[in-house]
Amino acid sequence: MGMGGRLREALRADGRVDADQLVARLEAIRRFLGIVDGKLPDTPLVPARTLVERAGTRLSLSRDHTVVALAGATGSGKSSLFNAMARMDLSPVGVRRPTTGVTHACVWGPLDGGTRLLDWLGVLPRHRFVRESLLDGDDESTLHGLILLDLPDFDSVQHSHRLEVDRLLGLVDLVVWVVDPQKYADRVVHGSYLREFHRHRDVTVVVLNQVDRLPPADVDRVVADLRRLLDSDGLDGVPLLPTTITDPGGTEGLRGALERCVAERQAALRRLSGDVDAVVAALDEMVGAPGPALTAGDPAVATLDRALVAVAGVPTVAEAVEQAYRHRAAATTGWPLVRLWRRLRPDPLRRLHLPDRSGDPRDPAESLVAATSVPEPSVADRSALGLAVRTVAERAGAGLPSAWPNAVTAAARSRLGDLPDALDRAIADTDLGMNRPRLWWRLVGGLQWLVTLAAVAGLGWLALGYALRALGLPELRHPMVGEVPVPTLLLLGGLLAGLLMAALTRPVARWTARRARQRAEARLTGAVTKVGEEYVLTPVRAVIAAHADARTVLEVARHR
């Protein structure tokens, strides 16, 4: 047994339950329910929700009263024992079975504060009795604060009787199980009831009633056999008392046990503590061991990112960036005589409705419609994304018990419907680095205009000379550079220089266009990864975090 187990055994041996610690454990269960709300099925959580509500109500009601129930099968004599303890004939006793069809209550001492408690228990006013008489003097003062209930027979042929028994067994502070020598080993009482109370040993008493029907020599043997059965039910250490109402002292042992219980004022706390133990044990099976961490470097996350990149059309947009770069570079640095023709060709980015952006937020109205004209993903890409999301969910939910893997899967798929629009907006909002011309484009473009103007000037000069000759006017004397006239040199040199610069800048534009594509692809991948983080990984991590928080608060609820 570990240190925690030894500590719990020591606390149990001490027998007292600290009220503040009990409230802290109940608060931990309440926080647990809040954490797992919407993540785990409601049905397994019903006992925990019922306990939190019932415990809050019980602790808010009378702390001066101890509710004890006499439970037993038909013919066990519990109603006679109830009357014997009250020293009054309050519950009907007869040969017809079942005799007790409704719950009777006897309250020792003033009823102040006990009325609300009996209302909560559902005991009808006409079946409530107050055990307070001037004739008793102080004979009954040791039981002041006791509310003794005579429950219907749990093996009654009427199903409503058993339902009433089961309801009240979940509410009372202490249960006295009354068995008789003939049916003390009955399978129903042990399998359906006593065995279920193994976590409530501190608030359980077993009475072997009607021992007067046994030969004196057999009493100890039957008691020993009943003790063996109780130990096998997990009720070792539970008080086992022989009783009989035919002997004036036959109920003194039970009366003494009830007097000690009333004096301690601990039964309600012990009962709730046992209920907390049972609920925590069930919740512990639902929580299990810690879940795996889902880091950015996890292969499942990398697969998801690749699938999102494909579905978002990042390769298509990156290719459009490269083509747009080359298109715009040619339109800026090319020979001016052919620039107009190039500008008549559509821009690859604008064909995708990807205007130049600098990363500024988009108008919210633009989010109501498709942001881009990026082609729809293929069936294969959509299938790959679905598989990647499922892989992430399986990786995150690996090793988690109960319904947690289902909660992880549901979280991973919870926002898939919004994912296409989110990816489209991410692509549209990403600064692709194409919002302004490059400096070298302008320099080359300026040089192109200079050489073109030189060619135009040379052409005009030559044209003027031909015109003067045609009109019979004196010829112009062209300056010479060697054997070549300057106008001819300007014309031919300008044309050749323009063509040469266009030829030299073309490979440079292709190289820089590939660099632009790589930068844009990196930015687009980052934007798409953020969408995957927000729409898939964040909901999954929220479930994993909830599982970790649930384990933490359950550890608080576990300590007695």
From TrEMBL:
Question: Which InterPro entries did the record assign?
Answer: GTP-bd, GTPase_Era-like, P-loop_NTPase
From the record, give the transmembrane residue ranges: 443-468, 488-509
Instruction: Map out region (Disordered) in residue numbers.
Output: 351-373
User: Origin, by domain of life?
Assistant: Bacteria
Q: Mark out the compositionally biased spans (Basic and acidic residues).
A: 351-365
Report if keyword Electron transport is assigned. Answer: no
SUPFAM superfamilies on file: P-loop containing nucleoside triphosphate hydrolases
Residues annotated as domain G: 68-209
Q: Which UniProt keywords apply?
A: Membrane, Transmembrane, Transmembrane helix
Which PANTHER family is this protein grouped with?
Answer: GTPASE ERA, GTPASE ERA, MITOCHONDRIAL
Name of the protein in its database record: G domain-containing protein
Organism expressing this protein natively: Micromonospora gifhornensis
